[in-house]
Amino acid sequence: MLSPNHHQVHGKGRQIYRSTEMFAEVMRGLFHDPSSVRILDAGAGTGLTGEMLQSLGYWNVDALEPVEKFAETCRQRGFYQRILNQPVGMDKPVDVPDDTYDAVCVVGAFGPGAIPTSAIPEFVRIVKPGGYILNCMREEYLRTVDNFRDKLVPLLQEMEKEGRIQQLEWTIYPGHFNDKDGLRMLYRVL
């Protein structure tokens, strides 16, 4: 199941893990002054995305990571201003006021047993109007993961119809992880 506005990126060689590269490609041109932007790295894991953001000049970055072991690794690596050690997309909202972030970035964390489809409305709540939600995930998960199959795309489309978000990009790219294609989604919060 693909968005009606998708396109593919064709590449020659495959790398082991290209999601951070595809993420950085968008982040390089998203904001004129990265130092004035506040970002949430959702599903921060071991801080790989935080490290990439810092290398691009984004210094005001928070991490949302529900696994304590990973949250502790994020603390030790020092790429984040604040570490939120809690899940997202459950019945309880995350501990963040409305309209806090200029962007929420999810790189490789929309997957089995990780960030669920129900996190999307929460991301919209905490991103400022005019801000962005950027997600890089395995494309196959739209078909193979129960939490996304027949749920993620319809939710995004419904939120677009409601005027809450606007799709800016939907790109399939090779080599997200090994030989698995990736999907890069960029939405503006309205």
Helix content: 25-40%
- Assign the CATH superfamily: Vaccinia Virus protein VP39
Specify the CATH architecture. 3-Layer(aba) Sandwich
* Arithmetic mean pLDDT: 90
Give the overall form: globular
Number of alpha- plus pi-helical segments: 6
Beta-strand residue percentage: 25-35%
What is the chain-wise order of helices and strands? EHEHEHEEHEHHEE
* Overall number of structural domains: 1
Low-confidence stretches: 1-15
Look at the structure and give the CATH class. Alpha Beta
Computed over alpha carbons, the radius of gyration is: 15 Å
Describe this structure in words.
The chain has 190 residues and is α/β, with parallel strands linked by helices. It has a single domain (7-189), classed as 3-Layer(aba) Sandwich (Rossmann fold), CATH 3.40.50. Helices cover 27% and strands 30% of the residues. It has 6 helices and 8 strands; from the N terminus they run E-H-E-H-E-H-E-E-H-E-H-H-E-E. The chain has helices at 19-30, 48-55, 68-77, 119-126, 141-144, 152-161; strands spanning 7-8, 38-42, 60-64, 82-84, 101-107, 127-138, 165-177, 180-189. It has an 8-stranded mixed sheet, with helices on both faces. A hairpin with a 2-residue loop joins strand 7 and strand 8. The protein is globular, with a radius of gyration of 15 Å.
